[in-house]
């Protein structure tokens, strides 16, 4: 399975900083937002990743993540300068995906919970059609929404104003290899974009869409606003300070996946000083002890 990390967008709701830098570089407590989405793909067992962003920001991503070798993965890069919608990522990444299935992660979504990685790997091992993760929310008007009837997907809506469902679609999507052709057959919406909800609907029409509700105790944070960014930072800080465990660390995920060694991580963080690297130093010291 391949992975696509979609990290473009104007991020206008997080201005004025986003006039000069992508919101995905903004810090969520002790690390940049993009780290959390990168970890989602790594937790799913994905080692080949295509990061798609604007030409303005691509070089900064390359400076931050390089080719991914530090994390035991391979990262390639592609440009999406025109905001033509999420599904366009599959057309841009067609030569990268080749004959594989693919998981798409939006760069501004944070997940955390015991067993979350096992859940993602179970989707990969049984993958056919499309799988989405859904979560009950108080205000569904900001998200794509799934209507379920007796455990079956009845319909899907994009940002409904008066929805009878509060099951929001999160920013992590699993697709089989037909996703490229399905995307090419989509029509633009009234917003002038190719809509992810229409792509999901094409799978649902063929009875190939599965919605999995996130287990109780698994948190999903969408960081699209200043308030949600602050909430996410407080949430991550609380967990890390009270448990001593890192959240959203690619180095840790790589270690636990056995994609890198303790010595490789130790070498990569020599001389680095910050809250994040201090915790990583402790992790490396205690790993396997």
The CATH topology label is Spore Coat Polysaccharide Biosynthesis Protein SpsA, Chain A
CATH architectural name: Alpha-Beta Complex
Number of domains: 1
Strand segment count: 13
**Oligomeric form:** single chain
Q: How would you describe this protein?
A:
The protein is of the alpha/beta class and 289 residues long. It has a single domain (2-286), classed as Spore Coat Polysaccharide Biosynthesis Protein SpsA, Chain A. The protein has eleven helices and 13 strands. It has helices at 33-43, 55-65, 88-92, 94-97, 116-125, 179-184, 196-205, 226-243, 250-256, 262-268, 275-286, and strands at 2-6, 27-28, 31-32, 48-53, 74-79, 102-106, 109-112, 130-136, 144-149, 152-158, 167-175, 209-213, 219-222. The strands form three sheets. Strands 1, 4, 5, 6, 8, 9, 10, 11 and 12 form a nine-stranded mixed β-sheet that branches. A hairpin with a 2-residue loop joins strand 9 and strand 10 (152-158). The two termini are 32 Å apart.
Write out key terms for the chains shown.
single chain; 289 residues; alpha/beta; Spore Coat Polysaccharide Biosynthesis Protein SpsA, Chain A; 9-stranded mixed sheet; two-stranded antiparallel ribbon; 11 helices; globular
Which SSEs are present, and which pair or pack?
Elements: E1 2-6, E2 27-28, E3 31-32, H1 33-43, E4 48-53, H2 55-65, E5 74-79, H3 88-92, H4 94-97, E6 102-106, E7 109-112, H5 116-125, E8 130-136, E9 144-149, E10 152-158, E11 167-175, H6 179-184, H7 196-205, E12 209-213, E13 219-222, H8 226-243, H9 250-256, H10 262-268, H11 275-286
């Amino acid at each position: 399975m391949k992975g696509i990390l979609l990290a473009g967008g104007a991020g206008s709701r997080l201005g004025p900083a986003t006039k000069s830098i992508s919101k995905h570089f903004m810090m969520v407590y002790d690390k940049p937002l993009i780290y959390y989405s990168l970890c989602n793909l790594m937790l799913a067992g994905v080692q080949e990743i295509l990061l798609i962003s604007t030409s303005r920001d691509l070089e900064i991503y390359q400076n931050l993540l390089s080719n991914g070798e530090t994390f035991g993965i391979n990262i390639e890069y592609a440009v999406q300068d025109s905001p033509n919608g999420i599904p366009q990522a599959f057309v841009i990444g067609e030569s990268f995906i080749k004959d594989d299935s693919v998981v798409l992660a939006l760069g501004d979504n944070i997940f955390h919970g015991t067993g979350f990685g096992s859940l993602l790997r179970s989707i990969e091992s049984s993958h056919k059609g499309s799988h989405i993760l859904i979560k009950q929310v108080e205000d569904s008007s900001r998200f794509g929404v799934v209507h379920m009837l007796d455990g079956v997907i009845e319909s899907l809506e994009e940002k409904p104003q008066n929805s009878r469902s509060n099951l929001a679609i999160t920013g992590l999507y699993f697709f089989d290899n037909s996703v490229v052709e399905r995307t090419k057959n989509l029509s633009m919406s009234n917003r002038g974009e190719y809509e992810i909800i229409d792509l999901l609907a094409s799978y649902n029409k063929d009875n190939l869409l599965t919605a999995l509700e996130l287990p109780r105790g698994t948190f999903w944070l969408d960081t699209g606003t200043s308030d949600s960014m602050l909430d996410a930072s407080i949430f991550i800080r609380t967990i890390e300070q009270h448990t001593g465990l890192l959240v959203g660390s690619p180095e840790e995920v790589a270690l636990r996946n056995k994609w890198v060694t303790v010595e490789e991580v130790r070498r990569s963080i020599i001389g680095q000083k910050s809250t994040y690297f201090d915790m990583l130093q402790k992790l490396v010291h205690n790993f396997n002890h």
